[in-house]
Amino acid sequence: MSVRCPNLKGIVAALAVLVTYSLPVTAQSADLQDEAELLTALATADDAEAKRLDRQLTAVWSKSGSAAIDLLLKRGRDALEVGDIPTAIEHLTALTDHAPGFAEGWHARASAYFGAELFGPAMADLERALTLNPNNYNAIFGLGAILETFGKDGLAYEAYQRALALHPHHEGAIQATERLKTQIEGRSL
């Protein structure tokens, strides 16, 4: 028994397009659910568990859904790691140009700009990253670091507190709040 379909190629092509464009949306929805679960667990985790959850969140946030974009992020981060800031900025600028909706690209480029002491562009990229992903406690911490650099200690302290509300074991935010606590809250008599 056979079924004749006059436009089989067209149907198969349409189905392939439908499946192709449906997969990233499904994967992104699963990541968002994972992110929410991971953030909830992180808020009450002990130190060891917090490190594991932090790695998982970083992995979730680092998935763009595109192998090419993920490669640009890796290359940018690798360049940052070895101190090659101009190369990092080049890779991460290509990333943000091609994937403007990928929050981690903006966050990574903000880190590169901060390393180059280009604080205005770093602040703009953090604003974009946090608009796309307001739960990225590392970006919030970066915002605090820039504010502290400009002597805006009260605002920096608030940013560090916000990062700690999401990730109570964030070492940089803990150290920063301890450093600024006396200035912000005053000394006890």
TrEMBL record:
It comes from the Bacteria. Keywords: Repeat, Signal, TPR repeat. It holds the Pfam family TPR_8. The keyword Repeat applies. The keyword Protease does not apply. InterPro entries: TPR-like_helical_dom_sf (IPR011990), TPR_rpt (IPR019734), Ycf3 (IPR050498). SUPFAM superfamilies: TPR-like. Residues 1-27 form the signal peptide. TPR repeats lie at residues 103-136, 137-170. SMART domains: TPR. This is Uncharacterized protein. It comes from Pseudooceanicola lipolyticus.
